Amino acid sequence: MKAHLVQIDSAWEDRSANHAKARKLIAEANPQPGSLIILPETFSTGFSMNLPVTAEPEGGLSEQFLREIAAQYQSCVIGGVVTQTSDNRGLNQSLAIAPDGSILARYTKNYPFSMGGEDKAHVAGTSVSLFEWQGLRIAPLICYDLRFPELARDAVRAGAEVLIYIAAWPVKRIQHWITLLQARAIENLAYVIGVNRCGTDPQFTYTGRSLVVDPHGIIIADAAEQERVVSAQIEPAVIRDWRAHFPALKDAGLMTNAECRMSNG
Questions:
Q1: Going by DSSP bridges, is the β-strand pair 136-142/162-167 parallel, antiparallel, or unpaired?
Q2: Domains of the chain
Q3: Active-site residue among 109, 118, 161, 198?
Q4: Could you say which of 3, 21, 65, 191 has the lowest number of CB atoms within 10 Å?
Q5: Element (H, E) at 179
């Protein structure tokens, strides 16, 4: 499976500009059918807590945009949206949409970023979500979730082989981002994909560093700091052979011997 990480400099609270920018970047990458296309957290508006601007109903403009991209490229598309609740708060979500427009997963960020006031605006999720694409079991996660290893463990316990963190992670803590993505890959014997934004907003500077990390913790794709799309091949056999060979998940009580053997086909 080919994964395409769309590292975008999101214009502040400008949905139409960001949709146009993302569309252009994806067109330049020209993903082939069956790909996985991933956009950052709150890519449509930037990481704003201005809910009258950012929050959309289910099926809103950003969700429609993701559906259009999925259909156009006959690929699975993941992107961050803010959905409005009945009590006028928000849900920071990662949507995974299939080529036919169906929603494969709608994951709500479990750990709103309290340091940035997100806990006042967004309601926390309470569980992980999984979906299957190209024979791989994938768990979407969001930004600050990366600092909580138990959440990744919950996803792996549910069967995840690929963990995808979409983010708006600022430059001040970018080394944490890189190190934690590698740690989550090593400890879970999983591919880990982190898709961050670049550029600036009224509060932070972002230096991208969208990464694909293999199950051994090796970085196999790095978008550096520019606005661009970086791509990498995700190989199911790499995950399954390593899990069958190395007993860490079995010893942690996350997989049985039989499941390890099944992982290896």
A1: parallel
A2: 2-234 (3.60.110.10)
A3: 109
A4: 21
A5: helix 174-188
